[in-house]
């Protein structure tokens, strides 16, 4: 078929256009144009992979209990969760695993709410021990950055309760 006869065929069709489609014999168009009519949801504004730092410490004693790199993935629905271990090296040279767990969600405006559960030091008499703590997390995605803060009190027996303050800073 020459170019001229193709153009004449095109001009002589009833609608003036020719649809080029492929089918698999079932009559289903497999050119990728099948549309269910459903609108695909937009991914959450906070969705993505983040890297940064996690720290918790006792400010009154200038005692850093955990300072580590952290990664966090927020899925397209805004959900996030991670579990990890922060290694604390004591004055005795021993390594102590301080476990933590983070979970939560980001809303459609990029506001994050969640929970952190973490292990840290406490004291009974003259004996130090590892205890479990938890607090709410909240923050906002701002220019691809997230800052989350948390807080709890640890009992240090005759030293009283000491504040444990924590920060998570992340960048996409």
Beta-strand segment tally: 8
Helical proportion? under 10%
Going across the biggest sheet, name each strand in turn: 2-1-8-7-6-5-4-3
Question: Ranges with pLDDT <50 over ≥5 residues?
Answer: none
In percent, how much strand structure appears in the residues?
Answer: over 45%
Helix tally equals 1
Label the overall shape. Answer: elongated
Largest sheet: 8 strands, antiparallel
- Average pLDDT: 86
Through-space gap between termini: 56 Å
Gyration radius, to the nearest Å? 29 Å
Structural class assignment: mainly beta
Order of helices and strands: HEEEEEEEE
Overview of this protein structure:
- Helix content is 5%, strand content 57%.
- The model has no long low-confidence stretch (mean pLDDT 86).
- Strands 2-1-8-7-6-5-4-3 form an 8-stranded antiparallel beta sheet, with no helix packed on it.
- By secondary structure, the protein is mainly beta.
- The protein is elongated, with a radius of gyration of 29 Å.
- It starts with a helix and ends with a strand.
- Strand 7 (145-155) and strand 8 (161-171) form a beta hairpin.
How are the SSEs placed, and which strands pair?
Layout: H1 3-11, E1 48-58, E2 63-74, E3 79-89, E4 95-106, E5 111-124, E6 127-142, E7 145-155, E8 161-171
Antiparallel strand pairs: 1-2, 1-8, 3-4, 4-5, 5-6, 6-7, 7-8
């Amino acid at each position: 078929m020459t170019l001229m006869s193709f153009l004449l065929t095109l001009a002589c069709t009833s609608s003036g256009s020719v649809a080029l489609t492929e089918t698999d014999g079932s009559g289903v168009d497999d050119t990728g144009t099948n549309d269910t009519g459903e609108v695909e949801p937009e991914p959450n504004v906070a969705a993505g992979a983040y890297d940064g730092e996690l720290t918790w410490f006792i400010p009154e004693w200038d005692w850093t209990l955990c300072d580590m790199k952290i990664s966090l993935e927020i899925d397209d629905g805004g959900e996030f969760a991670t579990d990890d271990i922060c290694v604390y090296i004591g004055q005795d040279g021993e390594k102590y695993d301080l476990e933590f767990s983070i979970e939560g969600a980001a809303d459609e405006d990029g506001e994050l709410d969640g929970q952190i559960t973490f292990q840290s030091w406490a004291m009974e008499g003259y004996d130090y021990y590892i205890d479990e703590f938890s607090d709410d997390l909240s923050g906002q995605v701002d220019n691809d950055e997230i800052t989350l803060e948390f807080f709890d009190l640890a009992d240090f027996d005759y030293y009283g309760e000491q504040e444990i303050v924590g920060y998570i800073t992340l960048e996409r």
